[in-house]
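Researcher: Next sequence.
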Amino acid sequence: MRRALTLYVLKRLAIAIPVLLVVSLVAFFLSRATPGDIVQEYIALSRDLVPGAQSYLQRQREYRQATVRLDRHLPPFYFAIRPAHHPDTLYRILRKDERQAARSLLARHGDWGAVDAYRRSILDLMYVLEQQRSDQADWISPLAQDAEFLLVNAVPERIGFLQEQMRSVIPDSGHASRRALQLIEERYRALTGSRRSAAAFLPALHWYGWDNQYHRWLSRILRGDFGISLVDGRTVTHKVRDAVGWTLRINLTAILLAFLIAVPLGVMAARRAGTVFDRSVSTLLFAFFAIPSFWLATLLVVFFTTPEYGAWTDLFPTSGIGTYRTASGLARLGILASHLFLPVLCLLLAALAYLTRQMRGGMLRELGQDYIRMARAKGLSERRVYWGHAFRNALFPMITILGAAIPASISGSVIIEVIFNIPGMGRLLYDGVLQQDWPVVFVIVLLSALLTVIGYLVSDVLYRMVDPRVRLTQR
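Model: Next structure:
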């Protein structure tokens, strides 16, 4: 038995590894496709980078430093399949907006050599303007700004307007900036006159090797390094560790109470099917199940945390966790109980209704089986029939629900935690989406996937414990 159980657990873990890898791939590429520029947000948080850089080249050096720290200077994945006319070095354009502009120009004109030459001519003008900043000329700054706009633009009308505007501010034709601008215009005309080759319609495989963004990202995840938050600069590991405790307190308490109440209540309702007790319990549970959690939570906050409707209704403290962190001993336990009672009650009522109905239905199905009639024919007591025979098999749906409840305990209480201002995983996920704190969001997604795998593995093991006839391995 023990050996079979061990082999089964190892087999399920082996199956779970590809599933988790697929989830990590989805989370990784979604994190790279999110709006905004994570490198710019990281620069805004960093204290050791040079602040207040004014010129493009200074900002570019800052950007490169931050890109290297975030591993964004590497190719995204082990390989890429692109049209054959695409270069395998496009990822080396570090700035996201510049890379998008270069990709758009390549898609429009189809000649990477011409696109690259055009980009380099704009960068040459940037270097010329950087050297002339000491002249204190009033036209240098707006010209540098227009050149930077030109670098991130791929719309022909906008490019023409910027070139004409830049031409109008340069003082004389012999100036180095004028010659650099003429080179930009020549290379842009060459770019627009280029013809798309047949390679644009053929796929090509680019192999980048093991040193890539995904490989480093996954390696850090496996070491427990989830990166830093883009909101406050704290490590994601610390933020998740602080939040998960509150979510587990609320959800595990609600799940435990729900099962402890729902299992015997469902058995009693099935035993008294059709009676006044059964109808009363079913009506009450349907009412609980029909009430939306957010509406119930709002009502509880309004009626039981303020003296607005009478002093006797002000039974619980307002939302949040109060002075829990500064208290100790029994005082800390009292603060915890008073602040978490209403959130637990909201989760408990919704879960209780569903679990009781599932337990009742499972018991009624089992009570109609032939082996139950056989047990009664043998003269066994009703107590033995219910709890010794029907109860075990009726537990199977409950075990399945328990497996699904484990991952739901992390992400399923978002609304409750937001309404009651509980600093748990649900609130962390909600704030992360609103604030576009994607490192936090995708770590919670990965944790939910991991807990889903663990939850269903626990369910399968409990199946075997409830009914020894369930085989963990096949002959």
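Model: Confidence is low (pLDDT under 50) at residues 48-53. Residues 33 and 206 are 20 Å apart (CA to CA).
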